Amino acid sequence: MRLQGKIALVIGAASGIGYAVAELFAREGSTVIASDITTPAQGYPAGIEAAELDVTSEDAWAQIVSGIIAKHSRLDVLVNNAGIIAYEPLHELEVKAWDRMIAVDQTGVFLGMCEAARAMRGRNPGSIINISSIWGNAGVAGAHSYQAAKGAVRNMSKNAALTYVGAGIRVNSLHPGFIHTPLTDAQAPDLNTVVIASTPMKRGGTPMEIAYGALYLASDESSFVTGTELVIDGGYLAQ
Ligand code: NAP
Fold it and tell me: What's the gap in Å between 36 CA and the centre of ligand 1?
């Protein structure tokens, strides 16, 4: 019961890492509002509240957070996890594809942090966890727009951490390595083989291995932790 009594909003919760985070947070005593543009085929575990949200919509963000405040009086934790991936190298990237990536993976995080900061400031301390990636820290060929967005999420988290440190809002980024999810299952098998072979542990991680990192950052156990980058990657970035 490491999150007993907390109110947590998990974004991109219908699948992969977000689903594991929602499941684990609920198991650890949190009230969980699980949100996505889609609903999980298997439904959410009992007790989890489902809500629809497209992270690119400012109005939808305002609505979901005000609904949580109206119902639960506060918001303690936001996990900004929704994301898409694309592999185009710079010279093949069209502006439309660039705009879509930035809208979901970067602006979505910006809008979520704005609403959470407004809800948490002056009301209660809170924890914001932004899911970046190892590609937010290290370079990789191709995937230009994804790297741009994930690198920005890393810096945006540090900026918000310092801006709101006096308001008791902690902001951290979490950087997964290769994780087995529907997102990576849909990728070219050859690509996945290369990334796993480059991972010192020689395997991909599970969504739950990331969820445990999010649990630490959401809980009061991490009360002295803000502006940091929690890397969970089987040793990839240690190389
Ligand atoms: P996933 O299984 O595809 O889950 C992401 C969820 O976000 C999906 O349900 C997706 O819906 C949803 N989503 C997409 N666009 C959205 C929008 N505009 N508004 C709200 N929700 C939206 O992927 P995952 O692997 O768990 O990834 C979760 C996060 O971890 C992402 O930010 C990803 O970049 C990051 N990450 C993943 C890995 C990895 O190896 N898996 C590594 C590093 C970082 P749809 O399915 O309908 O698109």
Answer: 9
